[in-house]
Amino acid sequence: MMIDMVSLAIAMGAGLIVISILTSLISFRIGAPLLLVFLVVGLLAGEDGIGGIPFQDASAAYFIGSVALAVILFDSGYGTQWRSFRLAATPALTLASVGVLLTALVLAVPAKFLLGLNWSEALLLGAIVGSTDAAAVFFLLRVGNIGIQDRVRATLEIESGSNDPMAIFLVITLLEMSAMGSLQEGWLGTFGLALLQQFGLGLGIGVAVGYLLVAVLNRFVFDAGLYPVLVLSLVLLLFGVTSVLGGSGFLAVYVAGIIMGNVRFRGGLTIRRFQEGLTWLAQITMFLMLGLLATPSEFPGIALGAVLVGLLLIFIARPLAVWLCLIPFGFTRAETTFIAWVGLRGAVSILLAILPIMAQLENGQLLFNSAFIIVLVSLVVQGWTIRPMARKLDLIVPPHLGAVDKVELELPGHAQHELLVYRVTRGSPVAEGERIPRWARPSLTVREGKSMQNHEDGRFKVGDYVYIFTTPRYISLLDRLFAQPVTLTRKDRRYFGDLAVDPERPVLELANYYGVSLRSGEDELTVAQLIARRLGATVVRGDRVPLGSIELVVRESDEQGVATAVGLALEPSVASTFQLPIFQNWQDIANALMHWWSARHLKTRAPRESESTTQPDHAQEAIDPQRNETKSR
């Protein structure tokens, strides 16, 4: 009988995973957030759904969810490039720490009054839903293939991968304070020390183990199938040991993932492919399990209040926290709006909501149900509208490169070359007769199932498979040769400007030709230097610099964040004219204050009424260029 129950449980679990994967086909057709589909499948299979599966083991759910989250965070770090970290580390980590705290504080106010909680419980709910979900954000941005600006994408990805430790720390700390019944003397110092311990140990151990893993993998030779198993085991060991020592295990695995994802080591390609499938399994398992744990029959009593709290989180708490955190970093209003909108809550919030139940808090089940409804609201409202919002804010960057049909093959040992297999696609430069450079060495061509040597194949044909040895730094150049042609719409062409401008050209020449004014100290700069000064040390593709009646657009940038190709727009672009009345950065605020001060100063020096009838209103012309321009016409 026991064997039959185990077999039945295995069959039911595997069946739910199969159903979830099959329903993903429907979600892609209707545009539904895929992780929402997994969650709904779990609800339907639960005790209140058509499946009727009873599952109320909160401890087991938290254990399985923690393991799944550790796997997801390691993969998130593994896919984060150093360039992304350089672009957005400071704003992203500010959002991941201060942003989570601000969100929790702001959301506690409506949570107290709409859900009837006391202040400690309201703060606890704010902390539970304070972090964005790495699985949801990475899925929508990477798998959803939304081509947004690099700095915005990097900020969202790093924030979602690094803000879970802060939320977990806040939830555990608030639970401990609730257990004590009142604040003890010196609680602020204790809070600070615990925070330093969690993040210090998590960061330090994560970096050390990340490099240690790379050294071990390069030092010893294992069977190819053992590399992924070894890495997975060591990652989970890292998570457990760091947590036991009092550090953040989630931060440790995320940091170790970043280290390993940016260093070459034996078995790296095999591990990457293994991680892709394992991460999908972890996401599906976590969302299904949390859906099974929920009891929808308990939702009606708190549904209205929880939905309102969820909407306030989306439209007030998250935007306010994001704006306050990003003021110093020069993000545009549209970029800040999009970052605020992509604040999806997901499995992490539901997972943290299990902790009050495990701690036997009086309103633990109420907090869990409220968090579950808030997550549903977030996935429905935000998850369904990410692409339309990016399009409305004109943050979708035209594709840099067409699709490339490519397979990477790992070479044994410490080879400094890589073996790539390209399929020649119609319209690609290679198909049109472009030759492969000498630094790449085509070794084999497969045409219609027959293999040919390089000197036998002649001109490449559509459908050929070309095997090429090359060094890693040249791969991006080869991708250009084998990429499908990019079809740019009229709006895409307008996005990058009407004319091309040499980045090394003196900007004073443009200023004189188009009659625009420069700021003090900009007369001696080149176009690239002006863009860097206006936007910061690192610029990315799609960045824009308004310059009077024209606009400079970064078409390409190198690894160091220097503009290598620049366009010039003769008309104000949609991106520059679409201005929101909120989310001003420090530059906007400074300009507004200067404008207000100038207007006030000029007003105090305005001519007397007797003089105003005979003298032109020079002050008004100076502060109202549109009116001045109309007069000149």
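(ticket continues) Second input and output from the same batch:
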Amino acid sequence: MIDTMATVTVGFGIWDYVIVGVVLLISASIGIYYRFTGGKQKTVQEYLLADKNMSIIPVAFSLMASFMSAITILGVSSENYTYGFQFVIINVSHLIFTPVAVYLYLPVFFKLQTTSAYQYLELRFGKTSRLAASLCYTLQMILYMGVVVYAPALALEALIGINRVSAVLSMGTVCAFYSTIGGMKAVLITDVFQSLLMFLGVFSVIGAALYQYGSFGEIWRIASEGNRTDIWNFDPDPTVRHSWFTLILGGGVTYLSLYGVNQTQIQRYLTVKDLKSAQKALWLNWPILFCLGLATSFSGLAIYSKYAQCDPVRAGYINNTDQLMPYFVVDTMGHVPGLAGLFVAGIFSASLSTISAALNSLAAVTMEDYYKPFYRYLVGHALSPNKAAIQTKLLALFYGVICVAVAFLVQHLGGILSASLTIFGVVGGPLLGIFTLGMFTLTANEKGSIVGLLSGLSLGLWMGFGPKPPPQRLPTSIEGCEQVLYNSTLLVSKSNQINDTDYMWLYRVSYLYNGLFGFLVTFLIGYAVSYIFRKISGRSVDEEDYDPKLFVSYLSRTLKSRKLGNKTFMLVKRAESCDKINENCRIEKYSRVEIN
């Protein structure tokens, strides 16, 4: 037996390099096109919000592509290979929670028309809440960008022979280039092109399995014999890794944290002309997201049909399950000129779409939440529109450089890959909680919102980073392998000795509930603390001068017309300049006027 893991390396052919090169060239060319057409990205509104004249189709594709990274494609396929098809139920949660995002959260942001989603928190609570939430988002996305670049580069280097440094630099440079010079229009249109490549990459895997086995039914039959097709787990136990409860509730909170209150998506909603168009784009996003999610999940079963009798991980052919899809492509399509290149182009595109979304959004948040307030405080007047446009582009470029730097840093920090992905989940729930606290309640105030956010983050990070028992994998076989490169039997016997009851209950809770628990703690503690401070200060909700636009529709209507005792009051709008927040906008405040 050989003690070390083996990797399989297949060199790229000329057609493979041509396809990948053409994909990167097209992405860069889109940025150049939008730099020299239209308004030439001379204003912040055009650069960050595409002049609010985009059609719903590219926005819908971009909403999907923003968070369907290469990690998702590689990870979901290996998830279904390793643990079964149950994960596909998360798409049901997306359907259930889409109307919540469409009709409750989205209208609030669209009425405000603020470039940064976190400006809402300043208007509703105060500057401290805005800064705290904005910092959470910024740190989260910086770390995630590095992982999005590094993880696929590492997998492709091990299997296909693409140099890791070249892969990281190529993706980072091209993405920073077209995001910086082309602005949001280039990002949206490039996302459409890259989305199609993502579909082609996943479909190529399914097509290769169909070519070998002849039908979907045969692939399903093989997967069924391996106990990978059961999707009817309704166990309510929160320590069950995947069930309808964890996937619907946990997946739903994750979906709302991304599509209801996340800066990356809010910015996309504001690129269309009106609220109805934004709502249509979000509705259209669901079938696109569902199709890619279903295809990616089924690709895991397709890969299993190939390796049902010889698991490449147990046999020592690859290092981990995240390399399954690239290994499958090399093993089945490596001899066909261009097909491996098509797959790599799809993986690159998945990373590019996520990074470009993050670069543009981080530039918007940094400009609106940090730079403009600091500039006004330092200089004494607001930043001019022309300077703001130029400096926003420089911020996007700066974050592109940071993205590449973090990608190289990841390889020296051991467990940072899994750690950063955990952060991406545990931060989303508390951020959803603080926005929900503001939009859905009148009682909440800044003190409660901050205490709630910190409490939710603390619990989420505690759950996410605590020592967790390894999940129980479905059985695999190595009976059909020609050669086993290390003693897998010893590894299996060791894993079976682990007793889950040795771990604290919170650490055994499904990872999908990290966001749910963080959301609930943020909301409940935030509300309770706000209520207590109101009682202590003696300031009731009726004394607040609320802007109805800061709340969901039913609370907004309540605020616009209140009955106090026997007197009816209407809230009459008055406007004040708000250039301290962003140019050409006004804060609307309301005063009570007795009407009977």
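Agent notes: The mean pLDDT is 81. The beta strands are 561-564, 567-577, 586-594. Closing as not reproducible unless the customer responds.
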